Hints:
single chain; Neuraminidase; 2 domains; 4 helices; 33 strands; 5% helix
Amino acid sequence: MQSLQIAYRRSIVYRRQIVLVSLLVGISLFTQSAALADAGQPMPTAAVRDVRRLYPSEWGVNYVDGVAYAVALNHLFLLDKTQQATDPTRIVTITPFEDFVSSVEVAFPLDDAINITFDEHSRRLLLFNNRANELAQVGLDANQLLDPASLVRTEITPWNVNKVAGLTIDPAGDYLYLLDSGAQELLRIALAGGSDFKGATITRLDLAYLNHTVRGLAIHPTTGHLFVASPTEHLLYELTTAGQFVQAHSLWRLGISASGGLAFAPSADQTDPPDVIHLLLTNSNLPLVMAAQAADLSPAMLNTFYLPLVQTKEVTGELYGADTSNDLASQGLLGEVLELALCAPGCTQWAWTITRQVAHSEDDAEERIPTGDMSELTSSDLELIREAKTNQWVGIRFQNVTIPKGATVTYAALIFETDETGNTPTTLLIRGDDTDHAEPFSLANYDISSRVSTGARISWQDLPAWDLVDENNQTPNLAPVVQEIINRDGWRNGNALAFLITGSGTRIAEAYDGEPTAAPRLLLEYTTWPAKVTAMVEASPVPTVVTQPTTR
């Protein structure tokens, strides 16, 4: 198979809104992501196209987390996130065209369903249990189906792993890779004899430079690049097999609440050439499911599967607000497998992503209506919008927003962390502070409502219940609001911008003075076409490598 291709010339025959997340061109290596983030600089991100979504609850995998693909068999292996660590592991096999193949139970419990991969060379499924420090292999029977009786368990304590959150093996079967998220390391294990784990030599690759917890691991069958995901940052990192950074892919606009396993497979679009490879990414959606259950959805709804299997879900400003049908999938109440087309290094466009967080006490504030009282400037939380019997304005300000004048904002969103649970009907209206440089909020009466607001405003309608403390809640796309601000004549790269929020109902979010690390965040993605960007783009340092032989 050749390198990834993204076929924009065709109309994909799926009932999916194609989401174009943006492209990265002419860049293969750049300064490590941690340095970019710490310096407050934007990060270039490569393209992701949402091709389709599969909902495997039809086969009893309601909250899919683990996924593996067998090329020779053309089979997908799926694991449910809710499996208990003491139970046998139930593995469901389907085809990429959503035909059921088999369901088997293997006498090997998993404490993390993400730890599954298929070894093409030795034709076996591999599973990993952190608690037992064991690696299991399951072979195939005469019908080329998983054979639970072939289970072999290998104790790998000498490998000295902390917490594995993903594994993969190269197509030739030469190297097994374990993502040790606990130690922020990637283990490259040279397999002696191609199939025996005993006596393997281990190379440890330090991934601490990524500066984020990563989960999920897959190897591209053509490029040999490794892919790991950061669920909290909604980023997919592409690495060499030496652990060196290649590029990042932005997952922000996909509406994923709990990303999990990764696997590569040929495109399921039969109009694509056979060498087109797509990434499969699982999203268990468990946080949204738990919230829905707390909101007293009927058991019949929670256990019903609705067709079509390939569900259209528009990722726009209404993603979290519009209730267009009773389809649980469209409401985000079932786990899903996303099929994604990725942009290989060398694309012809690029986008930049940045994150900002409220960084000072005067950067988030509440104003009582109608008195204009600003006395709760140092409140430990933010009531959106009603506090006691009084409605209020809420202001959120972000410093050092490094978007150059003339850029096109493709995505913007606020993230609020739940401070107190609530499910009362709530709708928010979000505007921008229409000024070149937003000033900090003060104790002066009416300091939020007196500010001139942008003409662009986004309605966040019918917010879902916030039923999990510390859960992140993301607004619809606020790009029109941000775009209006940076289009001002006086806007300068690095200025501050603020959002002004009104509405009805109540949701209670963390404020800077309550928990600085949980204060509101801003996600931004923009495109720009400078003559040169290579001055910012340098080869990332080669991670620390430690090689050790192991004995049994």
